[in-house]
Amino acid sequence: MNPRMAPRMQSVVRFLSFLACAIPFVAILGLSFSPENPTDRRILVLVDDLAIKSSHSIYFKSLQSRGYQLDFQLADDSKIALHRYGQYLYDGLILFSPSIERFGGSINTAAIAEFVDSGHDLIIAADESASDLIREVAAECGVDFDEDPGAVVIDHTSYAVSGTDGDHSLIAAGDFIKSAAILGSKTVEAPILFRGIGHSVNPANNLVLKVLSASPAAYSANPKTKLANPPAIYGSSISFVSIVQARNNARVLISGSLKMFSDQFFLSGVLKAGSPIKHKKSGNEQFLTEISKWVFHERGHLKAVNVRHHKVGEVDEPLMYRINDDLEYSVEIFEWSGASWEPYVANDVQIQFYMMSPYVLKTMSTDQKGKYHASFKVPDVYGVFQFKVEYQRLGYTSLSLSKQIPVRPFRHNEYERFITAAFPYYGASFSMMAGFLVFTIVYLYNK
After folding, report:
1. 121 has which bridge partners?
2. Could you tell me whether strands 383-391 and 371-377 are parallel, antiparallel, or unpaired per DSSP bridges?
C-alpha cells in the first residue's frame, strides 16, 4: 500500500466505526417520547436478580405485547445509564430492585428525580426488605414507606384464606380509587393479592393519589416481634399502591409489593376471609395491566389543537377587540388511546376571559367530536386580557392554554350620535332654549 494512503484509510476506518456506533444510538432516539406519540416505547427495567424476568413474565409480556421494548439490566451494573450525549436513552424506568443499596453506572436518586422532572415515567416496586435508597427515591415522589425494619401490612379481617387458616399478611385488597381514566372502564371484580410494606401519603399533596388502600382494620408492623407501641401507620391511611402525576404530566407508580406483579399472584385463586365467593384468579393482572396503561400514557393523555377566536360573523383573528364586541372561542381536545388520537368528550371544559381575575367564566359546548366552543361579549373594561383554559381532572393530563389579546375602548367617532338614555336631557336643553327665546321676545316687545 502507498504510505501516503495509509492515513486516509485510517480516517475512513474511524469514520465508519463512528457511524456503526451512531446509527443504533439514533435508532434509540427515534423511539423516544414525543407529543404526537405520547406512549413510552423503550423502558429500562432494573432488577436485583435476572430471575425476576421469568418469575414476573406475565406482566412483562403484557407490556411487550403492547409494543414496549424492555431492556433488562441488573441494578448494580456499572454500565447502565439513563442518558448519553445529553439525550435520554429511555422513555420509562421500572425499578424492580427493592433491596438494592446502590445503583450502578451514573444512576442515583438525583438522576431518577431529574428523569421524572424531564417528563419521563417511573414504576417503583418495594417490599419489606426495601433499602434506604429505594425509600429515598419514593420520598422524592411524595411517598413515605414504613420505617420499621421488617414491617409488613397485616389485616385480620381482609386476609386471603389458604388451607385451614390464613396468612394475615397476605391481604385480599379491594378498596380502589374510583376513576375510569386510571383503572379503565371495566370493574376489577376479584380482590388484589398483596404482601409487602405499606406507605403513607401527605394529604396536603394533591399530586399523589392512593389507588389501592388498606381496610380500616389493617396496620403495619413486624410480625416477628411483639407489638409494644401503636403502629406508625394503620387503617385506611395505609396505601398499597399510589400514583403521582407531576405538574409536567410525568407519571409515577409506587407499590409496596413486588410480589403482586409476580406470575404466582397473577394466577392464584383468592378466597377473602368472611366471603363465600372464591375467585379462580386474582385481580392482579387486570389491575396492574390497566394501571400500567395509565402510567405509560396509553390512557388519560390529552392534547389541545386549533385554538381559535374571532368576532361573531368573521373568521380571521383580530389583533385586538373593542369593548362590548361579540366573540367566539373554540378549541379541539383529543385523548390518546394508545394507538391514535380520539375525540375527548366532556361537559366541564371552561374558558376564562382573564385580566387579574376572570371577567368571563363560561362552560364551553361540544359537538361530541372533540371541538369545544363558546360565545360571549367582551366586558365593558379595556386593558390586556387573556383567553385561558385551565383543565385539570382526575386521571387526565392537565391542559393549560393562554393567549393574550388587548381590548380597547370606543374611538371618538365610534360612539352613538344620539344616546337613547340621554333623550330627557336633550329635551331639557331644547326646552330651556325655547323658553329663553320666548322670554326675550316678551321682554323686548311688551310695554
Report:
1. 92
2. unpaired
Q: Give the pTM.
A: 0.81
Q: Give the pLDDT of residue 412.
A: 80
User: CA 154 to CA 146: how far, in whole Å?
Assistant: 13
Shortest CA distance to 307 belongs to which of 378, 386, 232, 396?
386
Q: Print burial letters for 299-320: b (CB count within 10 Å at least 16), e (below 16).
A: bbbbbbeeeebebeeeeeeeee
Distance CA 108, CA 100 (A): 11
- CA-wise closest residue to 121 among 59, 68, 188: 68
Q: Which tens digit of pLDDT belongs to each residue from 287-336?
A: 999 999 999 999 999 999 999 999 998 989 999 999 999 999 999 999 99
C-alpha cell read off for 152: 409488613
Within 13 Å of residue 172, how many CA atoms lie on the same side as its CB?
Answer: 26
Give 155's DSSP letter: -
pLDDT at 197: 94
281 and 265 Cβ atoms separated by less than 8 Å:
no
> In this predicted model, what pLDDT tens digit does every residue of 106-127 receive, in sequence order?
899 999 999 999 989 999 999 9
Q: Where are the domains of the chain?
A: 20-295, 301-408, 418-447
CA proximity to 234, closest of 253, 216, 251: 216
Binned at pLDDT 50, 70 and 90, residue 203 comes out as confident
**Residue 28's pLDDT band (cuts 50, 70, 90):** very low
- CATH architecture of the domain with residue range 20-295: 3-Layer(aba) Sandwich (3.40)
Q: Choose between 182 and 222: higher pLDDT.
A: 182
Helix axes 109-117, 132-140, angle to 10 degrees: 30
Picking from 29, 103, 33, the residue whose alpha carbon sits closest to that of residue 250 is: 33
Question: Is the model's pLDDT at 366 over the cut of 60?
Answer: yes
Q: For the domain bounded by 301-408, which CATH number is listed?
A: 2.60.40.1930
Handedness of CA 95, 96, 101, 107 (dihedral sign): negative
Residues with Cβ within 8 Å of residue 60, at least 6 apart in sequence = 45, 53, 70
End-to-end Cα spacing for the chain: 139
Helices and strands (DSSP H and E) totals, the chain: 9, 29
In order, the DSSP letters of 393-442 are: -TTS--EEEEEEEEEE---TTSS-SS-GGGHHHHHHHHHHHHHHHHHHHH
User: Does 301-408 match 20-295 at the fold level?
Assistant: no
Q: Which of 360, 358, 363 is nearest to 374 (CA)?
A: 363
Residue that is written with C-alpha cell 375527548 in the block? 344
CB 406 within 8 A of CB 385: yes
DSSP, collapsed to helix, strand or coil, labels residue 50 as coil
